[in-house]
Amino acid sequence: MAEFLSTSSVSGTENREDEEVEPKFKYQRLANDLKNILNTDVVTSTAVHFKFLILGTFRGRVHLLDHQGNSVNSNLSNSERYTHQVAVNQIDVDPKGEYVATCSDDGKVNITGLFSCENNQNLSFGKFIKAVAVDPELRSRTRRFIVGHDKLILYERNLLNKLKPIELCLVEGNVLTIRWHGSLVAWASHLGVRVYDLNEKCSLGLMKWEAPTQERLENFRCHLLWSNKHTLLIGWVDTIRICVIRKRNLIEASSSNLPSYIVDPVSTFQTTFYICGLAPLNTNQLVVLGYRKEKSESFKAQRPVLCVIEYKKDSSEEICTDSLTLRGFEEYTVNDYSLGSIVEDNRFYIVAPKDIVVASLIETDDRIEWLIKHRLYINHLLTLKQYEDAAKLCLQMLGNNKILWEEEVFKFVKCQQLRSVSAYLPTSDDCKLDAHVYEMVLYEFLKFDVNGFLNLIKEWPSHLYDGLAVINAIHDNFRKQHAKQMLESLALLYSYQGDYESALRMYLKLQNKDVFKLIKRYQLYDVISKLIIPLIQLDRERAFEILLDKDKIKSELVVHQLEHSKEYLYWYLDSLIKVDSRNMFQNKLVSLYAKYDRKKLLPFLRRSKDYVIQDALAICKREGFYPEMVYLLGCMGGVEAAEALNIIIHSMNDIEMAIDFCKEHDDNDLWNLLINESAKQPETVSKVLDGIVDYVNPEVVVSRIRTGQIIPNLRKSLIKMLWHYSIQEEISFAAQQIQLEDYFDTHSEVVALQRRGQQVSCEQLCLLCYRPVLMKNSGFNCIIGFKCGHIYHEPCIEAVISDRHCSECRMRSVDPTEKE
């Protein structure tokens, strides 16, 4: 390869923009034997294969070269028979790189084996042939190829090894170019682009192309490229279209006349130049060779451009654009250029009639060289007050070089624009600058942009700078109009320094609920003892979540802090009783319930036993809480119970409650008091009669009724009472009968059980003499058995015990007289 080909901008007066953008490609011009070929001929068509390059020339010659431009000996160079009489229009190579197909305006199509003549073909059509394509299948060995003129014709060898033409379809005008991939053949005509499916033997449709103003579509080369088996790239005139060949969905396939596949244009966009070739770079980026539409001041062609374009659905963006200085570019037209590629190596061949240049993605060494070369440009941008551009350029150029970064940062200090470079400063351990650099940036933000200062405190790791120095700077420059941002900054800085109490105070001044996260994250439960009331004021629910956990903070400490804030104390103790029903502060809770929520008082008094009943009674008497007084006096019993009954009768006027109270305590004195009081109020006598059943003899109530006294509903109450006693008598009699029957049934079972025999076997031993209990011709066959199952010889047991109980378990024998 020859010299390095540098990039340049469109006009020599606008180099600044190109210089600040890091180049994406490096360029080298092919030379060696190619140079000799181009001295006597011009290139009209090319094919780039991963093994070699093939050039077709204006004189009809076809040359095989390696990737460095050296000629390779092959059948193409060994015989004049495989050349054309006029310019070569299109070249195609099989995937293995063994056969080459060429066509020309001389009407000939040649299929040439580079190193074998076995399947060579020479066809003559007597008309211009613009396009030819060989079968892309690896196993084909060029048994099939397609030729395009006014028809699209597939040629394939039959069993007799003879070529058989198959007309695929008629063409609107002539076929301009063909690209074949798998079973799909893409080709362009005067109207647009079609895709033909060889499996279904039909066209998948026509994509019409808009002709440029005052131009004919066929005057521009159509550039087709399959980036994969289902994606077709089309570049024609100044429009690029990315098409996906997909299977029709159920709705689209509802008509049986349509083919199974459809060509779906997923992205269409225009370029600012005419397209001379295109190739894929990555998922959504293309490399495009372009021919500028505008002429130069001398009305000649401008330099071609190589663009990297990132595309979306119907839009695109030029990532980078390089203007190329090719030999003779001023004299060339749009159709004189072409672009070939080896996608796997990210190598792109820019072909002009008298020049071939290789563009390769720039490598690390070349990038470093460019960055070093462009360092001084930062000074230029700062002079122009383009601070943001200068900062971005620092990021591109300086990488992780600490020394270079510190040198460049001080340039921003002089113009007080550290804020511009702050977003690009390195903060990782791989390239950590001196602490004073970060402190200078923070100080400038503190002075001019408090919000930006707070964001940096949040984003930057705290070890980059001296936190105490920054805290002092905030205190020295504290401004009330920015108090919120400064207090939050102080809270963060104090927490970074481990001074959590100060951090908590800052958050509380801010009324910032992040204080609770800080407490939990750093376990600051010892610190919050003096901050309990502010925490409750900030968020009672989240504060109690911490304060109610005795493992984190003692309840005695909380109660002490809340002694002078009775409502907060009530909230806390009311929550504490739910998690600790035996806490020591329940006596306080009586007065707090009486003051803040009386409806909770009586349930609490009934539920809890950990309060002083006399104190609770005093509070209820003071407040006049009769139900609570009744309950407490009832618990005390004796005279206090009678006082409770009097409160129910005279203060609450609730005779039903009085009856229930007497039933609960079931005390004769209370019943007598109730009966005496009811006798004074005739309207209550019938209610008392209804309530005393099973507790007091009704005669006591009736005897207190004075002669002539009118008692409402007395007859009804007496009938109800007599009916109740009648039922009780019947129930008692029935229960007695059931008890007698159970007694006799149980007695019968016991008798039957006592009379039941007990099984004895010869294997059983006497537990005293350890001989078998049954022996032939022996006086020991008289045995005694016990309910526990133990068996003894009678002589043995009589000699030992006299109370007829088993010597092992002291159970009585089945029958003391039973012998065998």
Automatic annotation (TrEMBL):
CHCR repeat start-end pairs: 546-687
InterPro entries (alphabetical): Beta-prop_Vps41, Clathrin_H-chain/VPS_repeat, Vps41/Vps8, WD40/YVTN_repeat-like_dom_sf, WD40_repeat_dom_sf, Znf_RING, Znf_RING_Vps41
Localization, UniProt: Lysosome
Keyword annotations of the record: Lysosome, Metal-binding, Protein transport, Transport, Zinc, Zinc-finger
Every RING-type domain range: 766-810
NAD found in the keyword field: no
PANTHER family per record: VACUOLAR PROTEIN SORTING VPS41, VACUOLAR PROTEIN SORTING-ASSOCIATED PROTEIN 41 HOMOLOG
Compositionally biased intervals (Polar residues): 1-13
Disordered: annotated span: 1-22
SMART domains the record matches: CLH
Full protein name: RING-type domain-containing protein
Key word Transmembrane helix present: no
Gene source species: Drosophila rhopaloa
Top-level taxon of origin: Eukaryota
